[in-house]
Amino acid sequence: xxxxxxxxxxxxxxxxxxxxxxxxxxxxxxxxxxxxxxxxxxxxxxxxxxxxxxxxxxxxxxxxxxxxxxxxxxxxxxxxxxxxxxxxxxxxxxxxxxxxxxxxxxxxxxxxxxxxxxxxxxxxxxxxxxxxxxxxxxxxxxxxxxxxxxxxxxxxxxxxxxxxxxxxxxxxxxxxxxxx
Length: 180
Prior knowledge:
It is built from eight helices and three strands; from the N terminus they run βααααββαααα. By secondary structure, the chain is mainly α.
């Protein structure tokens, strides 16, 4: 189960009065960069923005998951905390590297496998008595508002790093090798 962020609304944010306009202006500057550098730094900005939501999702996740096997006489079942530890961030870029039709994304959610299945049961509930916990909704309500302003700040910081990378002659790309 994942929580994708497309929270770029103009009426929230802490720094600027309109983080959406800031993000659009920064995206236009990213289009001026070479594609491979823009992709790398945009992905890093998205990952850094969403990484701040990991402790919030861990805090909203109930500490469920019990150890299997026999218990000693009188011993109570204890939580392993596996679901909390499986919270992760994944960032990537969709689209080809030939045009600026790429979409950068970052996802906050639970790791693949048993933890993800258990998270779905806890988020939505089951017909067999597991009540819905709404962990992702609580996280989105708490973390969604400052997300756009943080993304604008991260994009600006990464844009400076990209400019320094180009000015330093690092990561010149395949086109420089083809012209030789």
